[in-house]
Design brief:
This protein has helices spanning 38-49, 51-56, 69-79, 92-96, 138-151; strands at 8-10, 16-18, 26-31, 59-65, 85-87, 100-105, 108-113, 116-120, 126-130. The protein has 152 residues and is an alpha/beta fold. A 5-stranded mixed beta sheet has the order 5-4-3-8-9. Strands 1-2 form a two-stranded antiparallel ribbon. Strands 6-7 form a two-stranded antiparallel sheet.
């Protein structure tokens, strides 16, 4: 397993969160294109709806996009999201995880955030990568994978 790239980014309350804050716990780092869009909302709400079960199993969640702290605050308030949404306007962290790159939409190509998730173990190593995420039910997939990793 390779080490997860370090990050230190502000969340929706302007509190800086870093990878080292989560050492000793499992951490889900999910990258998403834009606040308050259909797929991103479905994914965020999937984590919101499973948040208590994730927390009970010692799994923290952070979402990262290039949206502003203010945009994240509105998104989190609107959908009652209880986990940090980190703002990476320079997309430095997004790129470090390989979640920035060429995308296609309606026949055109552009650079942007790929919907990807990383499961980071308590020692700060990438345990699982999810390169092609289906927003709905993604949290259940993570729960199953952590249970399998913890059992092995």
């Amino acid at each position: 397993m390779k080490p997860a790239p370090m990050f230190a980014l502000p969340d929706q309350t302007d509190t800086v969160r870093s990878l080292s804050d989560y050492y000793g716990r499992w951490l889900v780092v999910y990258f998403y294109p834009k606040d308050d869009t259909p797929g991103c909302t479905a994914e965020a709400c999937s984590f919101r709806d499973s948040y208590h079960e994730l927390e009970a199993r010692g799994i923290a969640v952070v979402g990262i996009s290039k949206d502003t702290v203010r945009s994240h605050a509105k998104f989190a308030e609107k959908y009652h999201l209880s986990f940090p949404l980190l703002s990476d306007p320079t997309h430095e962290t997004i790129a470090a995880y390989g979640a920035w790159g060429l995308k296609k939409f309606m026949g055109r190509e552009f650079e942007g955030i790929k919907r990807m998730t990383f499961l980071i173990d308590p020692e700060g190593r990438i345990a699982e990568e999810y390169p092609n995420v289906t927003p709905k039910g993604h949290a259940d997939q993570i729960l199953g994978d952590v249970a399998a990793l913890q059992a092995s």
